[in-house]
Amino acid sequence: MSVRELVVLGTASQVPTRHRNHNGYVLLWDGQGILFDPGEGTQRQMLRAGVAAHDLHRICVTHFHGDHSLGLAGVIQRINLDRVPHPVTAHYPASGQHFFDRLRYSTAYRETVALVQEPVAADGPLAAEPSYTLDAVKLSHPVESFGYRLTEPDGRRMLPRLLAERGIKGPDVGRIQREGSLGATTLDDVSEVRRGQRFAFVMDTRLCAGVHALAEGCDMLVIESTFLDEDERLATDHGHLTAGQAARVAVEAGVRHLVLTHFSQRYPDPGLYEQQARAAGYDGELTIARDLTRVPVPKRT
Fold this sequence. Notes:
By secondary structure, this protein is an alpha/beta fold. It has 10 helices and 18 strands. The protein has helices at about 40-50, 65-70, 70-80, 95-105, 160-165, 170-180, 210-215, 230-240, 245-255, 270-280; strands at about 5-10, 25-30, 30-35, 60, 90, 115, 125-130, 130-140, 145-150, 155-160, 180, 185, 190-195, 200, 220-225, 255-260, 285-290, 295. It has a 7-stranded mixed beta sheet with strand order 6-5-4-3-2-1-18. A 7-stranded mixed beta sheet has the order 7-8-9-14-15-16-17. α9 (about 245-255) packs across α10 (about 270-280). The longest helix has 11 residues, at about 245-255. The radius of gyration is 21 Å and the shape is globular. The mean pLDDT is about 95.
C-alpha cells in the first residue's frame, strides 16, 4: 500500500528554540522521499523521526537563508556516507548556486552517490515521475525564493453500476481499463475522472500571485505563517505571511488540509495560530505543525 504523508522535522523560523528545530520537511509519496528546506540539525531530526538517507530521492530548497539550507552539508554527506543506491536530485534557486556549492563542499568527504544538480531559474516544470509532476513557482522574499507544487496525474474511477448495466465483470474490467474499449462500450461509458492529488510547499514569502498559484486546489498546503495578524505590517516588510493571510489563501484556493509552520520565536502559544486561521474563515482540516510529527495526505474524495 502506498504511503503519502508529511514528516515534520522542524518548524522554527530564523532561530531554533528549545521546542522547535530549524526547518525540515520530508514528503513521502509512493516510495519516494522529497526533503524540503533542510535547516541546521536536519540530519539528527531525520534520525529521531525515523527517516533514513535511503528514503530521499529529491531535495528542494526554497531559498538560501540559513534556517532553510544550513542542513544541506550534513544531509549530503550522510547520503554519501550511507551509499544511497539511487541518484538524488537537488532543486534550488539558480541565483544561489554559489551558496549550494559552498554547502555541498563545506568539508572533506568521499562522494559515493550521484547528486544531480537541477537549479531553478524560472517558473515551470522540474520533473515528471509516474506518480507526480513537480513544478516551481517564484515567490516574493528579500532573496530569490521558489515554492514547489507536486501534482499526481488524473486517473480513472470505475463505476460498478455502469459496469453491471453493460454486463462487464471479471477480467473484462481490467481489459477495458487497459485497452480503452470493449466492443461498443468505451472506458468513458463506465468510469469517471479521478482527480490526482495535489501538494504545495510555500515558505518565506509575502502575499503574491505565486502563493495563490501554488495553493490552488491543493489536497495539502504546507505554508509559512511566521507572524500573527497583529504584526502584518512587520510580516510584509520582512517578506513573510501571517496566520490569517495563509488561512485566507487556503480558503480562496479550496485547500483540503492546511499545515501552518515556520513560527516566530516571539509567540510562545502556538494555539494563537489556530485561532487566527479559524477566524480567517478556514474550516477544513488544520494542522499547526510540531516537530517530529507525521501528517497524512488526505485520502482522495
